[in-house]
Each structure stands twice: as C-alpha cells, then as structure tokens.
Design a protein that fits this description.
By secondary structure, this protein is mostly helical. It is 52% helix and 4% strand. It has 2 domains: 1-86, no CATH class; 88-247. It has helices spanning 19-28, 42-54, 75-79, 92-110, 118-150, 159-172, 186-194, 207-228, 236-239, and strands spanning 2-4, 33-36, 65-67. Strands 1-2-3 form a 3-stranded antiparallel sheet, with no helix packed on it. It is globular, with a radius of gyration of 21 Å. Bound molecules: zinc ion (2 copies). One zinc ion binds next to helix 2 and helix 3.
C-alpha cells in the first residue's frame, strides 16, 4: 500500500504570474514522493530491522520512498548510491503476511493499552514484542534470500535466469485465489492482500521455516500480552490476521 504525500501548491493562481515567477514557483514545488508502506526495497527493510535492534522502544517502520518520476530506485538507495533490491514477484504475497503481523502488534505501541504494572510492564512488553518482530523479520529475510538463490536471482542476474523466473511466476498465477472477504483493520487488509499475490507452497524454498516463524510469533505475542497486558483475552485470537500454520 502506498501513502501519498501531496505536493504543496502555491495559493496564487499561476496564470497571473509572470513567466519568471512561474518558473520559480514550479522549481520550488516539492517532488512527488510515494512512501512504500509494503513494497519497500530490501535495503530499507534491513535498515528498519537494525533500527529495531538499536531502539526496541520505537514502532517498527520501514522508511522507503520513491520519486514517481524515476521510481526504479528508492530515495534512500539513491542517497547511498546503491541499487534497490526489490522483493521477487513469486514471493510478494509473503510481504503482506509479514506486514499484517507487524501491523497486528503495532497497537501495543500506538494505542492506549492498560499494562498490569504500568510503565515497567510496558517496557518489558516492548522488549519482548521487539524480539518477536525481529525473529519474524529474520525468517522473512531468509525466505527471500533462499528464494533468490533457488532462482539464480542474486548478483548480476542473467537474461536467461530472468526469463526463466518470469515464466515460473506466470505458470503459477492460476494459484492466486484472492480472498474477497473484508474485515476492518489494516492488519486484516494486508492479510487479504497477501492472497492477491504469489506465495510459496508449503515445502518450497524456506516456506516451512517461514510458517514456523509465524507460529513462533503467535506464541511469543500471546505469552507477552498475557503476562503484561490487562484484559487481553478478547483480542489476540480474534485479531490475529493469519491462519496459524498447521505444521
Ligand atoms: Zn528503499
Ligand atoms: Zn532501495
């Protein structure tokens, strides 16, 4: 999902400005940026994971934005003189699974949650939830890297590998079965969007490790919330956005 940052507009009518002023006004307009809330590049994702290690009390957030006029490289990679590593098409659905789970726990940072022992419990809960997110992100990173190696998508990717991968993705499009059920809440919307994109079948690549990471995340969040949050029972089971994998 993309969040649009609307460019600020000058309140003067451009038609009444001189050509000099028009040129200056156009020059001053901010670039049309889009924040990539889900389809971020791997470099920016890894920056966010490192930030979580350093600042476990901050909300997990991937800062990756593109200029719509040259969207092939994100602004952050442009600044680092790097080339974006985008998530391969064949596993894009798993990005939405990851984001659904991250959004699901975000409320413990952003909402008014009642903790059993006040601030002390809140700090412990943040640390444990941060560790749970970190474990999930590590498993996701492993899923991506394994998939790229399996399809020879690392380093300088040959035209043959690109063509082979494109054909592999095309041949699987029939497996995409979008879930049309709407449930309120961004974490449920991301879970629904996961069904609109390609995902691995159980047993392919690192899919079993990824499924195990989802189970571990569920158990870690349940245990943390039970320990530190009051009136927790209503939310965890009903609000968990993904099916718990049957391993
Ligand atoms: Zn980026
Ligand atoms: Zn990038």
């Amino acid at each position: 999902m993309a969040d649009f940052i609307m460019p600020r507009t000058n309140c003067q009518d451009p038609d009444v400005l001189s050509s000099d002023k028009k040129a200056k006004t156009q020059h001053k307009l901010p670039k049309p940026y889009i924040n990539l809330a889900t389809l971020w590049c791997l470099q920016c994702f890894r920056c966010a994971v490192r930030h979580l290690d350093e600042e476990p009390f901050d909300v997990f957030h991937v800062a990756c934005s593109i200029d719509v006029r040259c969207p092939l490289t994100c602004d952050e990679c442009k600044d680092r003189d790097d080339k974006c590593d985008w998530i391969p098409q064949g596993i894009r659905g798993h990005v939405f699974e990851l984001m659904a789970l991250i959004k699901f726990v975000e409320k413990y940072w952003t909402d008014d949650i009642a903790y059993k022992d006040g601030y002390e419990s809140q700090e412990k809960a943040y640390a444990e939830l941060g560790t749970a997110i970190n474990g999930l992100c590590t498993a996701f990173d492993d899923l991506v890297e394994t998939h790229k190696k399996d399809h020879m998508l690392t380093g300088n990717v040959s035209d043959e590998a690109k063509a082979g991968y494109f054909a592999w993705c095309e041949a699987r499009q029939h497996m995409v079965r979008p879930n049309t059920q709407y449930i309120e809440g961004l974490h449920f919307q991301y879970a629904r969007r996961a069904t609109e994109h390609l995902r691995l079948r159980m047993g392919e690549g690192a899919s079993i490790s990824w499924a195990a990471a989802i189970c571990a995340f569920y158990l870690a969040v349940t245990s943390t919330v039970e320990k530190y949050v009051t009136s927790w029972s209503y939310s965890i089971v009903d609000q968990f956005p993904l099916e718990i994998p049957d391993l």
